[in-house]
Amino acid sequence: MADLTVDVAGLRLENPFILASGVWGETGATLARALRAGAAAVVTKSVGLRPRPGYPNPTIVEVPSGLINSMGLPNPGIEEYGAEMEEALRPGRPVIGSIFGATAGEFAALARRMERWGVSALELNLSCPHAKGLGAQLGQDPGTTKRITAAVKAAVDIPVFVKLTPTVASIAAIGRAAAAGGADALVAINTLKAMAIDLDLCIPVLGHGTGGYSGPGIKPVGVACVYELFKAVRVPLIGAGGVSTGEDAAEYLMAGATALEVGTLVLRKRDRTFRQLSRELARFLASRGHRSARSLTGRAHRGD
Ligand code: RRO
């Protein structure tokens, strides 16, 4: 059996598959459920300083090869969210705290709180595609990305991951800025800004208008971003975007990823997601004579 264990910035994972933020992250119980179902680690919902109701319904629409969501960063605020953490930590596997804010100071305050709740690492959401003054509007600027990352690094001792948007002229430039700010790992990619129109009502389907496209349709975009980042920076990469099979995972690993985040697939496969992905990746590795998932990282660059 091929070795699926990986190490991301000191986080030892039993397999490369991590539950992505925003899916099953509302409660400690659902995070624990994903861990018990074979996820090596889980990322919480993105949490801010204050409660936020999110955008009006509908907030999700199915489109060819994926989904568009505009949840609008709904969350109970960091103080309330702490109550969920005890249960999330019970399975004894890494919980990664996702945070969003409008300023470096807000990120640092949230990071300190998350660290106190007992998370193993932080994920800075600099990439939500539809939030005014938050998410991608911050992460599209290299200076802001570096400043926020550095502020969080100065505030906590746990590893800091930065989740990047693909909607930039150069993801390599943003990745370099995050690395210069001290990022311990980069996550690529968040969803892509997208829209669906209701042809009968002649209006956008989603209450907010635009949303973020996820699922199999964005996998080639994610793979290209990971490939470019692998050439640009020397920090571990976590691939995200449309991972649906073990072979998708292998593709991301070859592009340069060390681990993978899985979101949209979980909505379809639920508890079967993680063990099935691990089985498929192990089968792929064995079929090609690869001894470990680790050995695949960056393979596609050998001819560079
Ligand atoms: O909550 C959302 O609408 C959301 C977030 Br925070 C994000 O990072 N990416 C996304 O597609 N949706």
Give a description of the structure.
The protein is built from ten helices and 16 strands. The longest helix has 15 residues, at 273-287. The protein has a single domain (6-301), classed as Aldolase class I (TIM Barrel, Alpha-Beta Barrel), CATH 3.20.20.70. The protein has an eight-stranded parallel beta barrel, surrounded by seven helices. It is globular and about 50 Å long. By secondary structure, the protein is α/β, with parallel strands linked by helices. The chain has helices at residues 28-36, 78-89, 104-117, 136-139, 142-155, 171-180, 219-232, 246-255, 264-269, 273-287; strands spanning 6-8, 11-13, 17-19, 41-43, 60-63, 66-69, 95-99, 121-125, 160-164, 185-188, 192-194, 197-198, 203-204, 211-214, 237-240, 259-262.
Instruction: Estimate percent helicity.
Output: 25-40%
CATH class: Alpha Beta
Can you summarize the main beta sheet? 8 strands, parallel, barrel
CATH level-two architecture: Alpha-Beta Barrel
- Give the percentage of residues in beta strands: 15-25%
Shape: globular
Number of contiguous helices: 10
What structural class do you assign from the helix and strand content?
Answer: alpha/beta
Residue runs with pLDDT of under 50 for 5 or more positions: none
Radius of gyration, in angstroms, nearest whole number: 18 Å
Compounds present? ligand RRO
Distance between the termini: 30 Å
Question: Order of strands in the sheet with the most strands?
Answer: 3-4-7-8-9-10-15-16
CATH H level: which superfamily? Aldolase class I
The pLDDT mean sits at 97
